[in-house]
Specification:
It is a single chain. By secondary structure, the protein is α/β, with parallel strands linked by helices. 58% of the residues lie in helices and 11% in strands. Strands 2-3-1-4-5 form a 5-stranded parallel sheet, sandwiched between helices. It is globular and about 45 Å long.
């Protein structure tokens, strides 16, 4: 099955880990938008944030997202946690193929990322409070962008990949059925 999809969700929700496995399983390229941005920037996202601010970063993120989405063929695209903040990015994602929201609670995410010092929006202050605030700000945007919501709380990465594959296969079957249904 040739897939072309994007993964959205909070920082630490598993987009890169699950995306890499999904791409490997389906034989399509994996594109990690954050890694691509770091290559383009020539520095870490955290360092760029500190030197140039979030607004400039979001401009470059939108450009890289548009470039990635314009690539032909199958792919699994993992976005940064804040990619959905801009309407243009949400539109680009929805147009490129199925979007899957890997949903995890702020408490689950905190357990996963509490020792990670590379996430610029979680540095300083109370990270749990920041995660709750980010979740409150972004959950609706992820849901608006996504075609499917995948709960990431308990399942292993392998189980999440299986759940995503089943969702995409069902969607492909529904699309095929719709194409074959005669229209009046």
């Amino acid at each position: 099955m040739q897939i072309r999809c994007a993964l959205v969700g909070m920082p630490g929700s598993g987009k890169s880990t699950v995306g890499r496995q999904l791409a490997h399983r389906t034989g399509v390229p994996f594109i990690d938008l954050d890694h691509r941005l770091e290559e383009t920037l020539g520095t870490s996202i955290r360092q760029f944030f500190e030197e140039h601010g979030e607004a400039r970063f979001r401009d470059l993120e939108a450009q890289e997202l548009a470039k990635a989405a314009a690539q032909p063929g199958g792919m699994v695209l993992s976005t940064g946690g804040g990619a959905v903040l801009r309407r243009e990015n949400r539109d680009v994602l929805r147009a490129m193929g199925p979007v899957l929201y890997l949903r995890a609670s702020p408490e689950e995410i905190y357990k996963r990322v509490k020792h990670d010092r590379t996430r610029p929006l979680l540095q300083g202050g109370n990270p749990m409070d920041k995660l709750r605030a980010l979740y409150a700000q972004r959950d609706g945007l992820y849901r608006e962008t996504a075609h499917y919501v995948i709960e990431t709380g308990r399942p292993t990465v392998h189980m999440l990949v299986n759940m995503i594959m089943m969702q995409l296969e069902m969607a492909a079957g529904a699309d095929m059925g719709a194409e074959q249904t005669p229209q009046p």
